[in-house]
Amino acid sequence: MNYKDISGEELKKLQQEQPDAVVVDVRTPMEVSQGKIPGAQVIDLMDAQFPQKVDALDKEKPYVLYCRSGNRSAQACNYMAGQGFTKLYNLNGGIGNWPYETE
After folding, report:
1. For 44-93, how does the pLDDT look when each residue is reduced to its tens digit (9 = 90+)?
2. Among 2, 5, 65, 86, whose CB has the most other CB atoms within 10 angstroms?
3. What is the dihedral of CA 33, 55, 52, 44, to 10 degrees?
């Protein structure tokens, strides 16, 4: 596996220890409108522009990806790993496992 599954608590800790970590929501705009993790970038996995948007990201930074259940974000992690990203995390269980406030 090219990424690490982490819990909501582990994500919160990672954000404190690595302030340059980028949280990425790969859900659709409709899903995002129901709330997202504060500060998360939105890059919809189903968007035809997904590969171009990923190419524009800094490969040196750590990325934490999430979706509704953890399935699409795992797919996105695998795609990004194939593009040369090495610090990838997947929020296990998706946004449902984020025990904190959303925006």
Report:
1. 999 999 999 999 999 999 999 999 999 999 999 999 999 999 999 999 99
2. 65
3. -20
Phi, psi of 53 (to 5 degrees): -65, -40
- Six-digit token pair at 55? 């190419």
Strands of 1-103 (E only): list them.
4-6, 22-25, 41-42, 63-66, 88-91
Q: Sheet with 41-42: list strands edge to edge.
A: 4-6, 88-91, 63-66, 22-25, 41-42
Q: Which amino acid is at 53?
A: K
φ and ψ of 64, to 5 deg: -115, 120
CB 94 within 8 Å of CB 73: yes
Q: What residues are labeled active site? A: 67
Predicted model pTM: 0.96
